[in-house]
Design brief:
137 residues; 54% helix; DUF3795 domain-containing protein; DUF3795
Length: 137
Amino acid sequence: MDMNGICGDNCAYCPRYTATQHGGKIELEKVKELWVRLGLRDPDFNIKEMACHGCTPENNCAYPELYKCVSEKAHENCGFYDEYPCKLLDKSLDKSEKLKSLSAKVCTREEMDMLNKAFFSKKEYFDSIHQKYGGKL
Protein backbone atom coordinates (compact mmCIF):
# COMPACT_ATOMS: atom_id res chain seq x y z
CA MET A 1 0.00 0.00 0.00
CA ASP A 2 1.41 3.37 -0.99
CA MET A 3 0.72 6.50 0.98
CA ASN A 4 2.88 9.23 -0.48
CA GLY A 5 3.30 12.60 1.18
CA ILE A 6 3.76 16.00 -0.40
CA CYS A 7 7.52 15.41 -0.56
CA GLY A 8 7.11 12.07 -2.34
CA ASP A 9 8.13 10.01 0.68
CA ASN A 10 6.02 6.90 1.12
CA CYS A 11 4.60 7.17 4.64
CA ALA A 12 3.45 3.54 4.60
CA TYR A 13 7.14 2.56 4.87
CA CYS A 14 8.52 5.57 6.76
CA PRO A 15 10.01 4.36 10.04
CA ARG A 16 8.97 7.52 11.90
CA TYR A 17 5.39 7.34 10.70
CA THR A 18 4.93 3.59 11.19
CA ALA A 19 6.53 3.67 14.65
CA THR A 20 4.21 6.49 15.68
CA GLN A 21 1.09 4.88 14.27
CA HIS A 22 1.75 1.26 15.24
CA GLY A 23 4.79 0.82 17.42
CA GLY A 24 5.02 3.37 20.17
CA LYS A 25 7.98 4.36 22.30
CA ILE A 26 10.15 1.26 21.76
CA GLU A 27 9.87 1.52 17.99
CA LEU A 28 10.54 5.27 18.08
CA GLU A 29 13.73 4.56 20.07
CA LYS A 30 14.86 2.23 17.26
CA VAL A 31 14.13 4.92 14.69
CA LYS A 32 16.02 7.45 16.77
CA GLU A 33 19.05 5.15 16.79
CA LEU A 34 18.89 4.87 13.00
CA TRP A 35 18.46 8.65 12.57
CA VAL A 36 21.47 9.28 14.84
CA ARG A 37 23.54 6.78 12.83
CA LEU A 38 22.54 8.61 9.64
CA GLY A 39 23.43 11.98 11.16
CA LEU A 40 19.84 13.21 10.92
CA ARG A 41 19.49 13.82 14.66
CA ASP A 42 21.71 14.41 17.69
CA PRO A 43 21.92 11.58 20.24
CA ASP A 44 20.15 13.70 22.87
CA PHE A 45 17.12 14.26 20.61
CA ASN A 46 13.79 13.68 22.36
CA ILE A 47 11.81 10.87 20.69
CA LYS A 48 8.55 12.71 21.35
CA GLU A 49 9.68 15.23 18.74
CA MET A 50 10.29 12.36 16.33
CA ALA A 51 6.68 11.19 16.32
CA CYS A 52 5.04 11.65 12.92
CA HIS A 53 1.34 11.99 12.20
CA GLY A 54 1.67 12.70 8.49
CA CYS A 55 2.11 15.86 6.46
CA THR A 56 1.71 18.87 8.70
CA PRO A 57 3.88 21.97 9.01
CA GLU A 58 4.50 21.15 12.69
CA ASN A 59 5.95 17.74 11.89
CA ASN A 60 9.70 18.52 11.72
CA CYS A 61 9.40 18.13 7.97
CA ALA A 62 12.66 17.52 6.14
CA TYR A 63 11.34 19.53 3.18
CA PRO A 64 9.53 22.58 4.64
CA GLU A 65 10.01 24.75 1.54
CA LEU A 66 8.56 22.04 -0.69
CA TYR A 67 5.67 21.53 1.73
CA LYS A 68 4.89 25.26 1.71
CA CYS A 69 5.05 25.53 -2.08
CA VAL A 70 2.79 22.55 -2.77
CA SER A 71 0.35 23.53 -0.02
CA GLU A 72 0.01 27.03 -1.45
CA LYS A 73 -0.67 25.64 -4.93
CA ALA A 74 -3.27 23.20 -3.55
CA HIS A 75 -2.20 19.99 -5.26
CA GLU A 76 -1.03 16.76 -3.67
CA ASN A 77 2.58 17.04 -4.87
CA CYS A 78 4.95 18.46 -7.45
CA GLY A 79 4.18 15.83 -10.08
CA PHE A 80 0.94 17.61 -10.98
CA TYR A 81 2.59 20.82 -12.21
CA ASP A 82 3.66 21.92 -15.68
CA GLU A 83 6.93 23.29 -14.30
CA TYR A 84 8.10 19.83 -13.27
CA PRO A 85 10.71 19.33 -12.01
CA CYS A 86 11.46 22.70 -10.49
CA LYS A 87 14.60 23.85 -8.69
CA LEU A 88 12.98 23.31 -5.31
CA LEU A 89 12.11 19.70 -6.13
CA ASP A 90 15.57 19.11 -7.59
CA LYS A 91 17.07 20.35 -4.32
CA SER A 92 14.88 17.89 -2.37
CA LEU A 93 15.76 15.01 -4.68
CA ASP A 94 19.47 15.81 -4.33
CA LYS A 95 19.09 15.71 -0.55
CA SER A 96 17.50 12.26 -0.82
CA GLU A 97 20.28 11.00 -3.09
CA LYS A 98 22.94 12.15 -0.63
CA LEU A 99 21.11 10.40 2.19
CA LYS A 100 20.83 7.26 0.07
CA SER A 101 24.60 7.21 -0.48
CA LEU A 102 25.26 7.60 3.23
CA SER A 103 22.63 5.01 4.13
CA ALA A 104 24.27 2.44 1.89
CA LYS A 105 27.40 2.74 4.04
CA VAL A 106 25.82 2.51 7.50
CA CYS A 107 22.56 0.56 7.17
CA THR A 108 21.72 -3.11 7.16
CA ARG A 109 20.12 -4.62 4.06
CA GLU A 110 16.76 -4.65 5.84
CA GLU A 111 17.11 -0.97 6.75
CA MET A 112 18.08 -0.10 3.16
CA ASP A 113 15.05 -1.95 1.80
CA MET A 114 12.81 0.03 4.13
CA LEU A 115 14.52 3.35 3.33
CA ASN A 116 14.36 2.66 -0.41
CA LYS A 117 10.60 2.13 -0.19
CA ALA A 118 10.07 5.06 2.15
CA PHE A 119 12.39 7.76 0.81
CA PHE A 120 14.51 6.81 -2.16
CA SER A 121 11.82 6.07 -4.77
CA LYS A 122 10.31 9.54 -4.85
CA LYS A 123 11.71 10.54 -8.26
CA GLU A 124 10.00 7.54 -9.86
CA TYR A 125 6.80 8.35 -7.99
CA PHE A 126 6.83 12.00 -9.09
CA ASP A 127 7.65 11.00 -12.67
CA SER A 128 4.67 8.63 -12.80
CA ILE A 129 2.33 11.31 -11.43
CA HIS A 130 3.65 13.89 -13.87
CA GLN A 131 3.30 11.52 -16.82
CA LYS A 132 -0.31 10.86 -15.90
CA TYR A 133 -1.50 14.28 -14.69
CA GLY A 134 1.16 16.94 -15.24
CA GLY A 135 -0.52 20.18 -16.26
CA LYS A 136 -3.86 18.47 -16.95
CA LEU A 137 -5.67 19.49 -13.76
